[in-house]
Predict the 3D structure of the following.
Amino acid sequence: MCGIFGIITTNEKLLGPLLVNAAKRLSYRGYDSVGCATITQDGKIDLRKDVGKVDDVSPRLKFEEMYGSRGITQLRWATFGTPSQVNSQPHLDSKGMMVGAHNGNVVNNIELRQQFIDEGMVVRSDNDGETCVHAVERYLYKGFNIIDAIRKAYNDLLGDYSFVIGLIGEEKLYAFKKGSGLMAGMAENATCVSSDLPSILPLTRKVLYIEDGEIVILEPDKIELHSVRDGSIIHRNYEIITESMDIAQKGGYAHFMLKEIHEQPQVARELIHMLDNSASVISIGQRMMKARNLYLVGCGTSYHACILGSYYISNLSGKAAFPVLATQFISQYGPTLGPEDVGIFVSQSGETKDVLNALNLAKTRGVQAFGLVNVIGSTLTKSTEYYVPLTCGYEISVPATKTFSNQALSFLYLALMMAQLPTTDLSLLPDLLQQSIISAEMQMAHLENLISKWSNTYILGYGATYPIALEGALKLKEVTDVHAEGLLSTEFKHGPLAAVRNGYPIIFIANSQDVPLIVSGINEVACRGAMTIVIGEQDHRLQSNAHDLLALPHSTPYLNPILAIVPLQLLAYRVSVSRGFNPDYPQNLSKTLTVD
């Protein structure tokens, strides 16, 4: 995710306090490293940066003392390059004449870095933020003016990102947007640009929202927009922001959980771009296909993603994959492990103790260990040969939402690669997720009222939707005080059917290929008085047999399960709020479980 902020003022001043304050207000976007750069009117760049949170790094490097008329700060959530001082942002160009920083991901980072090295540029890091600087440098030093250099760099840089840069010798800052958030603010005697509102609102509430394919030119007394396509000037009126600071930090949403549910289309898009350009993904897929035994290891939400991953891998590639809880992996499979086996160890934080224990045992037995993880620089990324970064940015709410959908997407991508099938259909997923969110929110009120009246419920799935039932039930248990149990629909008659009474709510998740079986399950409980709700695509059989159908957009049997989690996430959120809980911080739970 990352966070950037840039400011230019009428006169030179002590910019450090402004930059530190902006960094603190963006710290929820990244905490792997932080850096500040200032530029004086006589052409001196002061660059200070290091690994750690802003509260730790700022006093150590004396950010508050930094001086100039232009300043940039960046909070990093690592994706390309491990968290380190050299990979921290901002970055300089080869000659130290420019300084810049970005948020997002430049997915052709590795290829561009090699091009820059071959062209004689000084490349100091592995980080794609530096790649953005060199992409502009490449054309600026060929004689192009800065706007044309940025336009050409924009076309070279693939992925989703926003970027801000300043040059010695002129009193301007430049920024451009391609996928990631960016906005500019007009303040008194200053203008600023940022990836998010919280860093701007202390200075001004007069804001311009920047769109993809736009270049921002900041001067102390004006903001100018240009088109990347042809360089022409774009005219847009300012908006006056009335939101509170707390709501602004949450992107206008009441809670981080809701914000992160709504971020799923964007993070899925960024993950697909990254996977399409990742050499390590190819290596992981090849090793998985050759494994004697293939294990998918996780806990909680990550384990549910492993179950879905097992379904994808076995159905698409014909290779058996064993999903297993991390602690059970040790006791059940530990004695059988060997160098011919492959383990995919899954963790949002990369610090889940149970998963690390399983990983350590596997490595002592020679297992080829790979990671599927969100936090770059975590123990899991350092302990595996290769890993797939989930590219979700900082997930603040304790209940996992966007990390689950990207875990599922990662497994689907790997399964398609193992089967040597095209991954092009995955490009449909971000838009389908967006449609699912909009549709679910329109249909949610009735379901929310129904579930809120009961202290327990069941969520039933089959095949690819079984792990979605487990995950949906977990979300309800985490944040609502409703006891929800996820089950295979075919297992419900083997005992739990005894719980059904008049009006009892039961949620079914239907994949298109499993509708006849789901219809059978619906009637099995409806005839005993249950209130039946189905999450699935429009189908007259579901419509006529269930009490309610929460319709998903038409997709494929492999994308459908990922879409189906959206209504369940929103249901958990809505019931939590209606019952007076804070869904971001459920009682007794922690985001990172570092104990046995």
User: Anything to note?
Assistant: The mean pLDDT is 93. The chain has 19 helices and 25 strands. The CA atoms of residues 346 and 372 lie 5 Å apart.
